[in-house]
Amino acid sequence: MTREDMVLSTQKFIRYKPLLHELVMRDLRVKYRRSFLGYLWSLLNPLLMMAVMSVVFSYMFRFDIPNYPLHLICGQTIWTFFATATSEALISVWANGALIRKVYIPKYIFPLSRVLSNFVTLMFSLAAIVIVMLVTRVSFTWKLLLTVYPLLTLMVFSVGLSLVLSALSVYFRDVVHMYSVVTMAWMYLTPIFYPISALPPQLATLVEWNPMHQYVDCFRQLVVTATIPSSFTWIYCAVSAIVMLGIGLFTFNRLQKNFILYV
Predict the structure, then answer these.
(1) What is each CA distance from 22 to 54, 95, 105, 224, 254, in whole angstroms?
(2) Per-residue pLDDT, 212
């Protein structure tokens, strides 16, 4: 992409920024439409899931993890954002086919809006983590401010992957079904409800290179143990996010020319 193309893309993004805002607000309104508790579900859902999973995994499987409820809700909250955002973004382009056929709109706006709306939901869900920290009497330290880093880099990573998935799903609707299987396998390969020490050494080494493990682990270290993650974790989170965003932009830009023929 040339410098002129980058300038035009930036100007186009600024021009359609109000539309992006409206799409994000629409997604949030639709998500909680006709719900009595509304946005409170962003707080209640992770708490209820944590309660159920804590009983199952801490008592049935006997995982020896200090402050398991907080450990679990941190991983669960991060994973839920990622899985939900990318799954919703996956169908966002062809689901808005009627609008795309009528007026010109930068098509990347649709997957981007889904990721951003889920990021807003994630911000609400963080209140559930604060509640668990208060109940389990975890100290609030300045390191909590650094949690912005894994959250923002994860959002960038999710945008990049969403661009790839949404572009491919326009041509191949089977991607929708395939991705549900991929996310399930990916979840089990990410130490969310079990410690990485429970894995065989060879598999544990492989999981270390799983981007989602690094995002979850970075967030957990800052919240649960109030420790600073290693330089490898900081670098890996940033590099994986930038690389995935680059792949997403390249793939989406190459495939979007014929979207109108398939949506």
Answers:
(1) 38, 17, 13, 36, 27
(2) 97
